[in-house]
User: Fold this.
Amino acid sequence: MEDYENSVEKAVRLALEKLSFRERETVIRFYCMGQRITEIASYFDLSKNSINHIKSRGIKKLKHLLFPFARDKYGIELNDREICPLCRDKRLDKIILKCAPYGPWKYALRMAKRLKIKDVKAVSTIIYHYKNHISKGNENG
Ligand SMILES: [Zn+2]
Assistant:
């Protein structure tokens, strides 16, 4: 049970580390410390609008970063168009790992097209998926 909780905590912490300082602070202050938007706004000397914007961007990023973990751990499938297309379709992972870490990413992109994986239109999508969704597990393993 403890390991189980630790792995969740670790996943969340790793994801939080990928946010910008402001996004991380805002998310933690709002969701963990229970501060109100006005308090966070005055802490950063920003408008409430900006803080709301930063908060939703942070949450969106967390969702994106934690999606593979949630799926592997809990079998949760999110039906969200914002979810990384390469997480929806794992067929390219082996090819990506062969290309990693320096490429040639264009080869992976060509394969994505050949496999007809939707929404993979640029090398940056592949690199993002590699860096945020698959390299993590391998580095620590
Ligand atoms: Zn991904």
